[in-house]
Design a protein that fits this description.
There is one protein chain. By secondary structure, this protein is mostly helical. It is elongated. The longest helix is centred in the middle third of the chain and has 37 residues. Helix 1 packs antiparallel against helix 4, helix 2 packs antiparallel against helix 3 and helix 3 packs antiparallel against helix 4. It has four helices and no strands. The chain has one domain. Helices cover 78% and strands 0% of the residues. It binds protoporphyrin IX containing FE (HEM) (2 copies).
Length: 154
């Protein structure tokens, strides 16, 4: 069974994690390849690879936004109401929302001169997501362990 409830099923959890990993890894790869590729030489194969990473990133980002929408009803709102992992969950949600907004602004910059700064913000937020997600998982497993501890059983 695939449950996208307050507690995610192994299927839902793995789907979220694999998609997050593809989004994060493709974004990071674009950054790293930018340092390696020769800016003047457009025949450098690293430019092609970098472009492919951006295409992969754009596709994975679409799936990610759809998946966070799926989490919103039961996982996010349900855990929020139950006062579980609130601070971390809220921060994660805010970073994801800002990533989606800044990502959209990269496609359609409000002003061409702003694109570079929006890109820098987007990359910073991307690194923040890569750091926050493991924290969210760690907090989740700690909370679960505390809940299942015999001293806390009613
Ligand atoms: C207000 C927002 C959120 C709150 C309050 C929240 C809360 C929680 C809680 C309490 C758990 C532990 C569940 C349990 O084991 O019983 C958890 C696990 C998890 N959350 Fe969230 N969360 C939020 C947003 C998100 C978002 C946006 C994502 C997407 C990236 C996400 C992904 C996950 C994943 C992958 C797990 C691990 C599931 C598992 O170990 O079974 N959460 N969250
Ligand atoms: C919900 C999460 C995210 C969404 C919706 C998103 C969306 C987007 C979009 C739409 C673009 C423009 C693609 C293009 O120009 O073809 C983009 C570019 C980019 N994203 Fe993300 N992204 C997300 C997460 C991340 C993460 C986690 C990183 C990791 C560091 C990241 C790094 C980048 C980079 C480096 C670029 C290229 C910037 C540029 O063209 O100047 N993104 N993203």
């Amino acid at each position: 069974m695939n449950s996208w409830g307050v507690r995610l099923s192994p299927f839902a959890r793995n789907t979220v994690l694999i998609c997050s990993l593809v989004v994060i890894a493709s974004g990071m790869a674009w950054m790293v390849l930018g340092w390696q590729a020769d800016e003047q030489d457009y025949t450098d194969p690293l430019h092609t690879l970098r472009h492919r990473m951006l295409v992969l990133h754009g596709i994975a980002a679409y799936v990610m936004v759809w998946m966070v929408g799926r989490l919103s009803n039961l996982h996010q709102q349900g855990n929020w109401r139950a006062h579980r992992n609130r601070g971390n969950g809220l921060l994660l949600t805010a970073v994801l929302a800002l990533l989606a907004i800044s990502g959209l602004c990269l496609y359609y910059p409000p002003h061409e001169d702003w694109r570079e700064s929006i890109s820098q913000w987007h990359q910073g937020l991307g690194i923040a997501l890569a750091l926050l997600l493991p924290f969210h998982l760690l907090a989740a497993s700690t909370l679960r362990r505390l809940r299942n501890h015999p001293d806390n059983a009613r």
